[in-house]
Amino acid sequence: MASHNMTWLSYPSKNFASTSPEEIEAFIASQNIISRLMHCYIAFFVPTGLTAGICILIVFIKNYLQHKSMEQLDLLLLHFTISNIIMIFLSLTVIPRPDYLKATRLACSVLSFFFNFSYFNSQYVLLFILLILLLKRFPPRTALCKATQNPVSCVAFVLIFAFCLSLTGAVLVGTDNYHVETECQSDPLFARPEYEITKFTFGFGIPAFLQILSFTVLFAKKAPAEAEDLRQHIRTYAAVFIISITIFICHLFYNVMILFRTTLKLQKSIGTPTNELMMNIAEIVLFAESCATLVFIFCFHKPCKERILQVIHNCRRRNSTHNHLEIPVASTTPERTSQ
């Protein structure tokens, strides 16, 4: 494994010294692409994601106050929503792009800790959601199935596990020169290769394997006769399946870029501006996924969809009532004079 000394690392854009016109043009183009993607994300994805997240919270809170209880799936989706809202707020650190946020290494490690905490939270709560969907289709027979009947314990387990993984990541980032100011990302450039390998393993490798296993069981295993049709099951829980596929694709792209950056570190190379461009694109795609999944939950999860339809129906009814208001017309018949 490479030495823990990462002081030689820097971004290619900070050490660009080429005199070739073609390379200079390519460098300027990559910086423009990063800047435009950042502006698109901040202007479109952030407001949309935050609006959807707040609406989801309102729907779940109203349903809880109305029924004095919350279903397993709704509680886990509530936890998932809060984690993604936190992720969106943390993503505002991309505002300086194509430049980077300036912070001390200690502050950058703290930012990385909270970023990873939200990241691992979202990943592992999604696995519990998929497990619950499997249990709705296949009869529970094991102790694990009984354990998932208490969603609060599932949330507590996810929080503790995510905290431990995030703390491990913060240690692997390193504490050398903690007072030195540096360019900061959610996954710091100066982190040791062990940090990125650990994050890939527990943040993508294991969750992706379990997601694929869940889908394989769902589609390949024969369901009991009393279970609902598979197509109906997918339509009922469309939001979960859509966000699962979205997360898998976006996290795959991001983690491939993380591993590629690790390869450059092991080769003692800082890479090229193109490598830096791809890493920035992957990071913005990861943040955009947090916004998109909230929109999908708001549009496709049954309680949220019902609330949307109810609001639309109320608006139409009010509009119809307004249009059918009768205006009294004054009588024009002359009064008869008394004889």
TrEMBL record:
Organism encoding this protein: Cairina moschata
Record's keyword terms, sorted: Membrane, Transmembrane, Transmembrane helix
InterPro entries hit by this protein: GPCR_Rhodpsn_7TM
Residues covered by the G-protein coupled receptors family 1 profile domain: 52-297
PROSITE patterns: G_PROTEIN_RECEP_F1_2
Protein name (database record): G-protein coupled receptors family 1 profile domain-containing protein
Cellular component, GO annotation: membrane
Localization annotation: Membrane
Record-annotated membrane-spanning stretches: 41-61, 73-93, 113-135, 155-173, 200-220, 236-257, 277-300
